[in-house]
Amino acid sequence: MSKKPETIRALKIPADRDKPMEIITLQNANDYYLQALQEIVGGFIERVAIGDCRTHRRWTEIIMFVDDEGSFKPGYDVNPRASILYGSPVHGSVIYGDVVITGETIGIEGAECSDLNEYYSVGFFETYLGEFLGRGVSGH
Questions:
Q1: Is residue 140 part of a domain?
Q2: Could you tell me if residue 139 is inside a domain?
Q3: Is residue 1 assigned to a domain?
Q4: Is residue 2 part of a domain?
Q5: Fewer CB within a 10 Å sphere, N or C end of the chain?
Q6: pLDDT digits (tens), the chain, 140 positions
Q7: What is the distance between the terminal CA atoms of the chain, rounded to a whole angstrom?
Q8: What are the strands, taking DSSP E only, across the chain?
Q9: Rounded distance between C-alpha atoms, residue 112 and residue 72, angstroms
Q10: Which residue range forms the structural domain that includes residue 94?
Q11: Contact 111, 37 (CB under 8 A)
Q12: CB of 100 within 8 A of CB of 21?
């Protein structure tokens, strides 16, 4: 198994719609990004597949990390942007709290991930989500 890069690019989507999405850097600790992911989402992580709500096509090259217990934690708000990416308009389930989107790496470890492809920029997600939310997704 090859050593993972020291850092990777990722996209943070805060639950607070007035806070902008931002490209962040995840730090590798002991060959995993688990600690960095847990700090951002606020607890145990869960990997969820996301995709295009209009076509029901899964984006296979990216993955979203969420707080596994976010729906049970007091004070955690629904994350409307992450919920749309998760497919909430189709199936009704929502995502709570801040989330992180990374490139996907197939592996046995829950925190295996890779650099987010340059194609999936903040602008890409702002454009996509803007169609569903009706205003600038970063609150501007």
A1: no
A2: no
A3: no
A4: no
A5: N
A6: 556 667 778 889 999 989 999 888 887 766 567 888 899 999 999 988 887 766 767 776 788 999 988 888 888 899 999 998 888 877 778 999 999 988 876 554 555 667 677 767 777 888 877 766 664 444 43
A7: 44
A8: 7-13, 22-27, 45-48, 51-52, 57-58, 62-67, 99-104, 113-114
A9: 25
A10: 7-133
A11: yes
A12: no
